[in-house]
Amino acid sequence: MTLDLLPVRRRAEIVSIDWDALAPDEAKRLQALGIDEGARVAVAHRGIFAGRDPIALLIGRMTVAIRRAHARAMTVELI
User: Fold this and answer.
1) In angstroms, rounded to a whole number, what is the distance separating the alpha carbons of residues 51 and 61?
2) What is the CATH number of the domain that holds 45?
3) Which range is the signal sequence, renumbered to this chain (predicted)?
4) Under DSSP, is residue 48 helix (H, G, I), strand (E, B) or coil?
């Protein structure tokens, strides 16, 4: 499943990221925040508007807001 479909508060591990679907500067920013293959994450909450953007992502002790399009490029497995 992709990260944008992960239910709120369910923990998952990122197993792959389609880096080609992201702009190079956006990919670097995500990697600098620790969002990469093998990272354990959970969705804290989603935006309230129609697109449900942004997604608040829990990674380690941080909460990071990412775009839904970025989350769609990440494949996760439940843990």
Assistant:
1) 26
2) 2.30.30.90
3) none
4) coil
